[in-house]
Amino acid sequence: MRERPLSRCERDAVVGSVKAAARLDGRDQNEYRKRKLTFASRGQATAQLGDTRVLAQVSCEVAAPFPDRPTEGMVRYSLELSPMASPSFESGRPSEFATEASRVIECALKESRCVETESLCILAGEKVWSVRVDMHVLDFDGNLIDCACLAAVAALVHFRRPFVSVAGDKAIIHDLRSHEPVPLAVHHRPVCVTMAVFSD
Prior knowledge:
Elements (H helix, E strand, L loop, with lengths): L7 H12 L15 E5 L4 E6 L2 E12 L10 E7 L15 H16 L9 E3 L3 E13 L4 H15 L1 E2 L2 E4 L2 E4 L8 E2 L17
Parallel strand pairs: 4-6
Antiparallel strand pairs: 1-2, 2-3, 3-6, 5-6, 7-10, 8-9
Helix pairs in contact: 2-3
């Protein structure tokens, strides 16, 4: 992410706004941005905080579990920042900002045990569900981590995986049209809130 340093006039305007408890968009200092959630196909959600928009898409596939966690499935998160969302984002290799934002979101969702990974087990030691959450930044105007976390949680709650029946040591994954798909076991819904501290 290319960061442009503030000019002296911009810096004075920011400091003046903080001292006057005013914002350009008319919000109070402690007032959060307006929120909006929209849902599309199974496991797809778009979150909007002010003018920042993030689309999250959840998908899953059958995979082998980690040897040290034979009864737990996996949940992976990825965040994509494209120049379409903001001219400050560069295409190609992820920036330091993108890497840090991805880590914060992944930490918030994994450490809170948002998704119960044991419920993703199909056959212990052999087959588990590997869930992937792809977040795409559509518009960037601040509060990116908050918006991406909201989109990811909404998409996880909205997602339905195929129904699986187990007979002995065999698992049968049923077609979505023949069996009602199953929601993920989402036990916690973490919310990220970004704060800024200004000092003299």
